[in-house]
Amino acid sequence: MKTKDRIILGALTLFNQNGERNITTNHIAAHLEISPGNLYYHFGNKEEIINGIFDNYAQELKIRFKPMAEEDQSNMPSVQIMLSYLDSIFELMWNYRFFYANLPDILSRDEKLKQKYTQAQLALHDNLIAIMNNFRDSGLIALEDDELQALTKTLHLVASCWINYQTAQLSDKEITENIIYQGMLQMLNVVRPMATEQGREQILALEAHYRSRVAASC
Length: 218
What we know:
Structural class: mainly alpha
Organism: Aliivibrio finisterrensis
Strand content: under 5%
Oligomer: single chain
Number of domains: 2
Keywords: DNA-binding
Protein name: TetR/AcrR family transcriptional regulator
InterPro entries: Homeodomain-like_sf (IPR009057), HTH-type_Tx_Regulator (IPR050624), HTH_TetR (IPR001647), TetR (IPR025722)
CATH topology of the largest domain: Tetracycline Repressor, domain 2
Order of helices and strands: HHHHHHHHHHHH
Number of helices: 12
CATH superfamily of the largest domain: Tetracycline Repressor, domain 2
């Protein structure tokens, strides 16, 4: 692995474990057993490292939430498609939890990063609308266009703000996988009242799946 990539991954690990505010470039260099000069050869400061981490995150958003082609969707059960998307949300929230936990502060320090974040979220919103339209076409939800837009925005907000909210509630406790699984359940709770009978059955199955994960992670 290239040194630049090692720095990004090492920093991500430390930020997630200890909080981004508590980690310096010297901490990252020591963790990787490289000199600070070697680190600065690749990144001028910590903000550049955070930008590198975000670029990886934004690329994952594009890949994981690309709407499925119609022929692919017809060959996979709807419940499996929903599970795939929910697991992607979980993995992103867990793998980049430092970013979700301290988003306003991180963006306030870097205008360039804020612009990249805004662009990534706009692209994600368009993909989410397409995904939700696919679920509507599959008969899982029965909503008008404005209702579907509102539901999509609510789900997007829950996913984006769940860790930040929980961090404020937990004070000095760390974010765990259990907490993120509870976020998955919260999103399913939002969708369930708006689902068709067919959709409700599948959502209840997904809720049981994530409750079992919560129990296993306790």
